[in-house]
Write a structure and sequence with these properties.
By secondary structure, the chain is an alpha+beta fold. The chain folds into 2 domains: about 5-170, Jelly Rolls; about 185-285, Orthogonal Bundle (Arc Repressor Mutant, subunit A), CATH 1.10.10. Helices cover about 50% and strands about 15% of the residues.
Length: about 290
């Protein structure tokens, strides 16, 4: 077990931070690395053809992945299964590549495909998915073309089209749709602040003041958008990181509590047991 969760940045040396890789290569050449819990600062779109039995994303085992698209948000902790008989492709890209304006950034933050508050997005590739696969293939082909003044715009437009087509298909299948509007905007701002400050700030008032809204208005926004209060979302975010550190690192209970903003280990233990119905030690031993 590692002393920390390994984090990866997008590979240096690429002019454009977008890449398509064959899954067989990843599962063959990097299986010892990727079979350990890790996170990355970029997005993954997996296109599994022949899939592993399971792919784990933040403690959730995702199964039945043959002929499936799987979307993994940046910074989520994932674990690849140690198996070689995997075929398909994975598309990797960063915020810096896709988001050249605030509208672009808002699009990717609000996407139902990459949302920390929702279930990990997956759907089966079917005959209706042909336009999606065509986009995937066109990106791959453009990446091997000789670079010219149009390359970035073509790649970025193809990626945008791919994401829009995937969102449309995901909605067609009846998955949760977040309605656009002020409630979603406030929820998105709250989520971004929460992901950067959850270790030091656990009061709803503290987040609401940064968004320049009242606690009541923020509560209405997250409840309408996600069916949860800001306090519930704060506690869930702290619990997620606590579980990650308990299972994937060798940090002591005291060190984990301190890392998450608890000055006294007893307060962390009480908080964890309240939400997990297990002590931190019991949770670690069960995993």
């Amino acid at each position: 077990m590692a002393t920390d969760i390994k984090s990866y940045r997008f590979k240096a040396g690429f002019r454009h931070e977008i890449e398509v890789l064959p899954l067989k290569k990843l599962y063959t050449e990097y299986r010892d690395i990727l079979s350990q819990p890790h996170r990355a600062d970029f997005y993954h779109i997996f296109w599994f053809q022949q899939a592993p039995q399971v792919h784990v994303v933040d403690f959730k085992p995702i199964r039945n992945l043959n002929n499936t698209l799987l979307f993994v948000n940046k910074h989520q902790v994932q674990t690849f299964q140690k198996i070689q008989k995997v075929t398909g492709k994975v598309l990797l890209f960063t915020d810096d590549f896709f988001a050249k304006s605030n509208d672009d950034l808002l699009f990717i933050r609000n996407s139902i495909l990459f949302n920390d508050f929702l279930d990990t997005a997956t759907f089966k590739v079917s005959a209706r998915s042909n336009p999606i696969i065509e986009c995937f293939t066109e990106i791959e082909e453009e990446l091997v073309e000789k670079e010219d003044g149009h390359t970035y715009d073509i790649l970025r437009n193809l990626l945008h089209t791919l994401l829009l087509r995937c969102e449309r298909e995901y909605r067609r299948l009846g998955h949760y749709e977040i309605k656009k509007g002020a409630d979603l905007d406030y929820t998105t701002l709250f989520r971004d602040l929460l992901n950067s400050q959850y270790k030091s700030l656990r009061s709803v008032r503290g987040y609401a003041s940064q968004i320049n809204v009242s606690e009541k208005r923020l509560t209405n926004a997250t409840t309408k958008t996600l069916g949860k209060t800001p306090k519930e979302l704060i506690d869930e975010r702290v619990m997620l990181e606590a579980k990650r550190l308990l299972v994937h690192t060798l940090y002591s209970i005291k060190e984990i509590g301190y890392e998450l903003g608890f000055e006294e280990p007893t307060n962390f233990i009480k908080f964890f047991k309240k939400h997990a119905e297990k002590t931190p030690i019991e949770f670690r031993e069960s995993h």
